[in-house]
């Protein structure tokens, strides 16, 4: 289930891949960027949320949040504030590590049939 969700999520968002392919010049590199982009990673995340909680609500909520916020533009931020390059990278890494660290506790659901708590 975890490995099929990114595939179905990717197929549902194929228009994003087509847009990326066209935007980056219809090259092999653009095709790889379109296929291996954030859509498949988010599919894994949505499957994880569903299996941990046993509910589609967290996956839908995360999808809505990501649609509103958009994908982080680290390169743009570094270009805009080059003297804060290492601070920007550090804060992004701390945010990722903090999210990964707290995610198991946030998603632990008593009585989940998919991922029982220990």
TrEMBL record:
Protein origin, superkingdom: Eukaryota
Membrane topology of this protein: Multi-pass membrane protein
Catalytic activity annotation: Hydrolyzes the peptide bond -P2-(S-farnesyl or geranylgeranyl)C-P1'-P2'-P3'-COOH where P1' and P2' are amino acids with aliphatic sidechains and P3' is any C-terminal residue
GO molecular function annotations of the record: metalloendopeptidase activity
InterPro entries: Rce1 (IPR039731), Rce1/LyrA-like_dom (IPR003675)
The protein's Enzyme Commission number: 3.4.26.1
Subcellular location: Endoplasmic reticulum membrane
A single GO BP: CAAX-box protein processing
GO cellular component, as recorded: endoplasmic reticulum membrane
Keywords: Endoplasmic reticulum, Hydrolase, Membrane, Protease, Transmembrane, Transmembrane helix
CAAX prenyl protease 2/Lysostaphin resistance protein A-like domain boundaries: 2-69
Transmembrane segments: 86-104
Family: Belongs to the peptidase U48 family.
PANTHER family: CAAX PRENYL PROTEASE 2, PROTEASE U48 CAAX PRENYL PROTEASE RCE1
Protein name: intramembrane prenyl-peptidase Rce1
Species assigned in the record: Ephemerocybe angulata
Top-level taxonomy: Eukaryota, Fungi, Dikarya, Basidiomycota, Agaricomycotina
């Amino acid at each position: 289930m975890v490995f099929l969700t990114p595939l179905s999520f990717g197929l549902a968002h194929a228009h994003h891949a087509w847009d990326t392919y066209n935007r980056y010049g219809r090259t092999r590199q653009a095709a790889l960027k379109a296929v291996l982009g954030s859509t498949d990673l988010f599919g894994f995340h949505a499957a994880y949320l569903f299996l941990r909680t046993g509910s589609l609500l967290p996956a839908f909520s995360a999808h809505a949040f990501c649609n509103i916020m958009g994908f982080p533009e680290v390169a743009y931020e570094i270009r805009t504030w080059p003297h804060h390059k290492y601070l920007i990278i550090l804060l992004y890494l701390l945010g990722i590590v903090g999210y990964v660290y707290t995610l198991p506790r946030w998603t632990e659901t008593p009585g989940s049939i998919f991922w029982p708590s220990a």
